[in-house]
Prior knowledge:
This protein has strands at 3-7, 10-12, 18-25, 32-39, 46-51, 57-59, 67-72, 77-82, 91-99, 107-108, 112-116. It is built from no helices and 11 strands. Strand 5 and strand 6 form a beta hairpin. The chain is globular. By secondary structure, it is mainly β.
Amino acid sequence: QVQLVESGGGLVQPGGSLRLSCVASGIIFTLYRMGWYRQVPGKQREVVASISSSGNTNYHDSAKDRFTISRDNGKKTVYLQVNSMNSEDTAVYYCKARNQFGTGNDYWGQGTQVTVSS
């Protein structure tokens, strides 16, 4: 069974940093492009960043300065480092896997809550 399990969320003060992790299982990890998305109540889920198996990255304009996505294929894990956090970063952050070489469905994690508050 395919599973994506996010962790690392929680409460952080403005200006602080957080590193989210997503561990994948049940997939050949190197076949998948991995992404981080976030969603706040009443709004559509939006992409934050994504990374290919080889390390090519893409960032949303709002995330490119303070966010860094990375992956460890050996650990089947994708990370999202967030620095200089502010209240606008408060959201549920989701991990997504998309097969780069097929037409299969995307896989999603359950999400991890990130709250920026003093």
